[in-house]
């Protein structure tokens, strides 16, 4: 039997997400078509994003631009029900958990083949997960608690953990499994996991296969004719993942029907898209928090009073107004859906006079220094935020220098401590159903930007690390929720980041498509096997 863990916090978030999925009319189960009149198949669907993945390797790709490729070509032992935080069987059909919570035994499907014809079995699953751990890039962060993996038989896999983790099952959809034959054929003495080959090639078990990749233009996917599940009527049989750095151009193409759906569109642009003929806006709770990381490793931001002054000066209502109803206030690093206690905590309010007083106490009466703001090119809300910072910090006597660049360059800048901006912009969301993962991503010492993580504040606090790591070991729901609320307030009080807003997911889609976005994949990912053309 399935032994699933579902905490009260996860139940709250799942309920909210399920309501959002229902509101947008999507078929989250994937078992039936979207309704009468569905085409025999959905044909080609075109998805547009502002950035292109730098790699196709599922052991490396760990951002929204990479997820939308990986989730359609590769599979893990389990998957999330579209639009929710509930895990369900995929390559594993059932599982059991030991009494001590340290060992999970999975029964695997025996009718699955990789795209190259290699049969899927326990040895393949074992190698696939070990490869992620061995490559030790982004996806490895969710596998760090795995102690050992054993292929007991072709259809039985045993995973033992280092410590109990009540959210462990939620990590398995994030561990995509590659063909062991492809690894063996393309590895080298210096590249035992064939990472160079997998950067531009793909062999998974998913419903779609890689057809072509035109760099900086589009990735083409085609239907896996030997897929172990049937394609229901209306399901896309091919997918084009376009790269359109300019959102306004992409919106025009959406209105003309050349693009079917978009990812990473800001709420401001979604509001405009809602008025387009033939276009609808898919709305779901996003569990996303938009933040401005303040670089505490150098310059004035090292002083907590300066950071608090910046937080006090920021115009939060201006952002909410800019989003035209598609956002709410954020009061800390965690979405309110994860705990009722979090929802009740107050958000910081703008107070220019208090900000000036804090600066004076920090030894900067009248400001008198310059900070750099780094934002993402192509997203109007990030550029608007920069302009807003110029205005509000200008009232404190602080000059703001804006730098707007493409995503790869943004990551490169922030990963260099000497070049990292004083203030930057990130959209943070849970990658699993573990709420503490968001805390680890942005605030854990191990995830500072120079180590490849999203702790762009360069904040390091071993005591906080220990508190965050303990969350997933707490089996009592009430105790865990109380601790999450405590940490939410404690981190907010450090003013390591400015909590810009909690935006809704609002993405423009052509009216003929029923779509559910995967909020645990950086919000904008879509699994096209669950999309239907009505």
Characteristics:
alpha+beta, globular, 22 strands, 4-stranded antiparallel beta sheet
Instruction: Bin the helical content.
Output: 25-40%
Mean pLDDT, rounded to whole units?
92
Number of strands: 22
Structural class per helix/strand content?
A: alpha+beta
End-to-end gap: 36 Å
What percentage of the residues does DSSP assign to strands (E)?
15-25%
User: Which term fits the overall shape?
Assistant: globular
Read across the widest sheet, the strand sequence of neighbours is 8-9-10-1-11
Gyration radius from CA atoms, angstroms:
23 Å
**Major sheet attributes:** 5 strands, mixed
Which stretches are poorly predicted, pLDDT < 50 over at least 5 residues?
Answer: 1-6, 23-39
How large is the count of helical segments? 16
What does the oligomeric state look like here? single chain
How would you describe this structure to a colleague?
The chain contains 16 helices and 22 strands. It has 534 residues and is α+β, with helices and mostly antiparallel strands. The strands form 7 sheets. It has a 5-stranded mixed beta sheet with strand order 8-9-10-1-11, with helices on both faces. A hairpin with a 6-residue loop joins β2 (78-80) and β3 (87-89). α8 runs antiparallel to α11 and α14 runs antiparallel to α15.
């Amino acid at each position: 039997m399935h032994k699933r863990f579902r905490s009260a916090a996860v139940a709250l978030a799942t309920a909210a997400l399920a309501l959002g999925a229902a509101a947008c009319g999507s078929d989250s189960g994937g078992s039936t078509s979207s309704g009468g009149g569905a085409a025999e198949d959905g044909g080609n669907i075109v998805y547009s994003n502002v950035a292109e993945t730098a790699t196709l390797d599922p052991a490396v790709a760990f951002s929204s631009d990479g997820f939308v490729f990986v989730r359609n070509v590769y599979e893990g032992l389990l998957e999330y029900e579209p639009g929710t935080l509930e895990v369900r069987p995929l390559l594993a059909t059932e599982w059991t958990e030991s009494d001590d919570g340290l060992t999970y035994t999975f029964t695997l499907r025996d009718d699955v083949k990789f795209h190259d014809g290699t049969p899927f079995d326990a040895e393949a699953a074992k190698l696939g997960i070990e490869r992620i751990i061995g490559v030790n890039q982004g996806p490895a962060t969710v596998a760090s608690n795995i102690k050992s993996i054993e292929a007991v038989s072709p259809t039985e896999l045993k995973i033992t953990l280092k410590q109990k983790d009540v959210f462990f099952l939620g990590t398995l959809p994030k561990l995509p499994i590659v063909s062991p034959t492809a690894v063996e054929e393309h590895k080298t003495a210096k590249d035992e996991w064939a990472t160079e080959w997998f950067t531009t090639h793909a062999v998974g078990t998913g419903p779609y296969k890689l057809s072509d990749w035109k760099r900086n233009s589009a990735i083409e996917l085609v239907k896996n004719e030997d897929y172990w599940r049937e394609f229901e009527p209306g399901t896309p049989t091919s997918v084009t993942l376009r790269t359109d750095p300019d959102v306004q151009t992409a919106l025009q193409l959406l209105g003309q029907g050349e693009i079917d759906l978009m990812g990473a569109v800001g709420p401001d642009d979604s509001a405009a898209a809602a008025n387009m003929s033939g276009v609808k806006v898919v709305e779901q709770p996003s569990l996303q928090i938009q933040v401005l990381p303040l670089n505490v490793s150098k310059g004035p931001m090292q002083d907590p009073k300066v950071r608090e002054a910046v937080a006090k000066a920021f115009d939060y209502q201006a952002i909410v107004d800019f989003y035209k109803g598609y956002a709410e206030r954020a009061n800390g690093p965690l979405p309110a859906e994860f705990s009722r206690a979090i929802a009740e905590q107050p958000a910081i309010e703008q107070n220019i006079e208090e900000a000036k007083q804090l600066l004076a106490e920090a030894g900067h009466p009248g400001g008198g220094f310059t900070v750099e703001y780094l934002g993402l090119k192509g997203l109007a809300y990030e550029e608007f935020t920069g302009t807003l910072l110029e205005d509000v910090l200008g009232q404190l006597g602080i000059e703001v220098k804006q730098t707007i660049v493409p995503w790869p360059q943004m990551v490169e800048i922030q990963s260099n401590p000497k070049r990292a901006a004083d203030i930057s912009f990130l959209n943070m969301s849970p990658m699993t159903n573990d709420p503490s993962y968001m805390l680890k991503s942005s605030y854990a010492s191990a995830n500072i930007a120079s180590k490849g993580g999203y702790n762009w504040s360069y904040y390091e606090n071993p005591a906080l690390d220990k508190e965050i790591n303990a969350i997933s070991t707490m089996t009592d729901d009430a105790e865990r929720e109380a601790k999450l609320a405590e940490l939410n307030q404690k981190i907010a009080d450090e003013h390591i980041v400015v909590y810009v807003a909690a935006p809704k997911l609002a993405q423009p889609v052509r009216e003929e498509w029923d779509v559910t976005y995967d909020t645990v994949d950086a919000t904008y990912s879509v699994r096209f096997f669950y999309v239907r053309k009505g």
